[in-house]
Amino acid sequence: MIFQDASDIVTDDILLELKDFIPHSHVYLKLEGLNPAGSVKIKTATALIASAERTGTLAPGSGRVIESSSGNLGIALSMVCAARDYRLTIVTDANTQKPALQAMSALGTELF
């Protein structure tokens, strides 16, 4: 498959059943290998932006998104906004980890 936009890769959960892992039970492993941002909040970010586009609040290539985040949602929004050409401002706090700040910044996010 060829995708035009990184957020198009976001899919429903992919689950692998681990048969006989624990006798007399069902154990499933959630696979996140196709998560383009490496963030657990990618579905939330994709849904937020898609909803704003559906209602006309945002149009691809124009608009700014402002959000408060100290990590996962900010990284996911950074990826989605970069792919859809939105400006993104993330308001962080002093406890935000440096790798999260670097990831958001690398995707063009303005940090405050």
Automatic annotation (TrEMBL):
SUPFAM superfamilies: Tryptophan synthase beta subunit-like PLP-dependent enzymes (SSF53686)
Cofactor section: pyridoxal 5'-phosphate
Lineage: Bacteria, Bacillati, Actinomycetota, Actinomycetes, Glycomycetales
Presence of keyword Membrane: no
Record has Lyase as a keyword: no
Coiled-coil spans in chain: none
Keyword terms, alphabetized: Pyridoxal phosphate
Occurrences of domain Tryptophan synthase beta chain-like PALP (ranges): 24-111
Gene Ontology biological process terms in this record: alpha-amino acid metabolic process
Entry-linked Pfam families: PALP (PF00291)
Official protein name in the record: Pyridoxal-phosphate dependent enzyme
